[in-house]
Amino acid sequence: MIDTLLSKVRAGITLEIPSVWGQGRTAYGGLSTAMLNRAMLNELSKDIPLRLHNTQFIGPLLLEEPFIIEVEHLRDGKNVTQLQARIMQNGTVAVQSIAAFGADRESFIEVLADKVELGPVPSKANWVIKDPKLAPNFLAFFELSTQKGGYPFTGKSEPVYDGWMRFFDTYGPITDAHILALIDVWPPTV
Fold first, then answer.
1. What secondary structure, in 3-state letters, does 42-61 show?
2. pLDDT per residue as tens digits for the range 122-167
3. In contact, 54 and 189? CB cutoff 8 Å
4. Between 29-43 and 176-183, two packed helices, what is the crossing angle to 10 degrees?
5. Which long-range contacts (CB under 8 A, 24 or more apart) does 131-140 make?
6. What is the C-alpha separation between 30 and 167, in angstroms, rounded?
């Protein structure tokens, strides 16, 4: 389903988000971020990787209501291109993102990442709720599996949790837009 929506994204055309992607009265933030990312990517004249993507949720992005995405080139440099994209609905900005796309450059600086310990990859999800009375509609598109802690309002004593997440269905390669949609899927802890 996300691939179908992302395939339609272009700056300047009228789009709508179906109610199944709802999160209360607004569209799921991960999806709107993914759509802005895809619109910006479609505006790039060269294939350079995403280096930064920042999104601000200004107001509700209403479901099943028309909107357009505007993309503005802030700067097209030799190595870095900076873009800004906005979802405009009913004459106002609902969501906006700024992103930097940059070419690889050689450096003598070496940054060592912290060690990440991953639990075993689950064979199936342990938290799949498709009842809109219990969880936002958009969660029907994702499988989640906790490895530590517990979801908010479940009585767990730990204020954090972590685990695995994935789409129920994707049809092509996982892109930056897919990753941005996944980042927002976990409910915030207390």
1. HHCCCCCCEEEEEEEECCCC
2. 777 776 666 666 678 888 888 888 777 766 666 777 777 778 888 8
3. no
4. 160
5. 136/22, 136/23, 136/24, 136/28, 137/19, 137/20, 137/21, 137/22, 137/23, 137/28, 138/20, 138/21, 138/22, 138/23, 138/28, 138/30, 138/31, 139/185, 140/20, 140/168
6. 12
Structure tokens at 142: 């994702």
By the 8 A CB rule, do 149 and 162 touch?
A: yes
Question: 103, 47 in Cβ contact below 8 A?
Answer: no
Q: Which two tokens stand for residue 61?
A: 């992005």
Residue 28, both tokens: 């799921």
Which residues 6+ apart lie within 8 Å of 126 measured at CB?
A: 144, 145, 146
* pTM score: 0.88
Q: Which residue has the tokens 């979802």?
A: 87
- Cα 42 to chain centroid distance, Å, stands at 16
